[in-house]
Design brief:
homodimer; Cobalt-precorrin-4 Transmethylase, domain 1; Methyltransferase, Cobalt-precorrin-4 Transmethylase, Domain 2; 10 strands; 31% helix; disordered C terminus; Dphthn_synthase (chains A, B)
Chain lengths: 261, 261
């Protein structure tokens, strides 16, 4: 039997009683090492379970699945996953390989962020599609998550934003903070403030919503534009009145492909 | 401390190790008795936990919250919930009462259907709004779940349909089956089959998709209409060619209010 066992979200004791009993009796115990982190490390888990854990990173699961499945038809092998086994990464590939090899499998569920998020008081029923917000780089600023959030809001739904990992091969993972994610979201909303239009001292300032929140455009009358899709020519124009040189960095990477000029 | 402890989805051993330790040490242990069921009953839980459990039905949680909270500022009280504590019913009311009474609370998460459903192989990321399908009666046939499913499908999202409880006060609960829910979904899709229109032996049959699937309209040519919103007059007309007398029972209750005649 191949057991997929969820470890929950906190520490070693968040495994279920059933899961712990199975871990203690399996011939080999793998620990999935790539989708999420507990507050404790492998050593603490090994000590609490009283078992040696074999770290299984993405490469191993994809390329050495046969090794993981070895002997699982005649003995028990456990595959431990932080959260629920079918939360973030579904292990469909490993399941299908097991089934094809005539090996039975069983899932021991546990909490994952997809349901535990209900602790904040928002109804799980009212969540739409979950999105992932990834780290932006100077040249890669994907914004598809924004459109999904907008779709959800249009339907009156909440959106759970899973915050990105920035791991590159052979680098330790880095985890996005709520502050970083909020900053990226703020940068997406490009606005234009206008004051005293037509007067000699008219002022136009383009920037993110947060930039404009601290921008003094002087006496009345003021107007504010919240931009939608932007034509590349519009972007060029807005740059003329950008609050700061990099104020419009957040402009949508898809712009030039959205419009044909 | 007031502990909200998730029990998971299966049997007594699906509680987490942490949850079990807390249950054993609390001065009183309540078992929420109204949102879901385990495969085992209260007796089996009491035996495994080694603790007496106080059943807390909806009335008690709403009307005797003070009794549940009694002494939780100086000792520990546990409130057990099948699945995750913030899965189906959020216990926001109880949380707020505790906080207002100066009682600290803590949540011990566990699996619930909202995340465990990932075991079927569909990505949790790709689920839209969750819907509830309730038992229809002769006079009450709500279909709002259909519109939500459609919205999700329009966005390319899967829809988890939680199947209704039919409990009335002082009656044992009954639980909707997949078969019953599928039947209700099938009844919603009213279609019209037409054969040899204009010929002497033309045939028109209106019914649910499943009825038309077993309906022989004879020789060619055939056409099929999948209906959208129906005007009350259209409904009257379709009844003339209904496959069976009750074929159009499933027609949308909202029809007469959707249109003004």
């Amino acid at each position: 039997m191949l057991y997929f066992i969820g470890l929950g979200l906190g520490d070693a004791k968040d495994i279920t009683v059933k899961g712990l009993e199975i871990v203690k009796q399996c011939s080999r115990v793998y620990l999935e090492a790539y989708t999420s982190i507990l507050t404790v490390g492998k050593d603490a888990l090994e000590e609490y379970y009283g078992r040696e854990l074999i770290l299984a990173d993405r490469d191993m699961v994809e390329q050495e699945a046969d090794e993981i499945l070895r002997g699982a038809d005649i003995s028990d092998v456990a595959f431990l996953v932080v959260g629920d086994p079918f939360g973030a990464t579904t292990h469909s590939d490993l399941v299908l390989r097991a089934v094809n090899a005539g090996i039975q499998y069983r899932v021991i569920h546990n909490a994952s962020i997809m349901n535990a998020v209900g602790c904040c008081g928002l109804q799980l029923y009212n969540f739409g599609e979950t999105v992932s917000i990834v780290f932006w780089t100077d040249t890669w600023r994907p914004e598809s998550f924004y459109d999904k959030i907008k779709k959800n809001r249009d339907l009156g739904m909440h959106t759970l934003c899973l915050l990105g990992e920035g791991r590159k091969v052979y680098e330790p993972p880095r985890y996005m903070t709520v502050s970083q994610a909020s900053g990226q979201l703020l940068e997406i909303t490009i606005c234009v403030g206008l004051a005293r239009v037509g007067a000699e001292d008219q002022a136009i300032r383009a920037g993110t919503l947060s930039q404009l929140a601290t921008c003094d455009l002087g006496g009345p009358l003021h107007s504010l534009i919240v931009t939608g899709n932007l034509h590349p020519l519009e972007v060029d124009m807005l740059r003329l009145s950008a609050v700061t040189a990099d104020a419009l960095q957040g402009l949508r990477a898809a712009d030039s492909s959205t419009y044909t000029s």
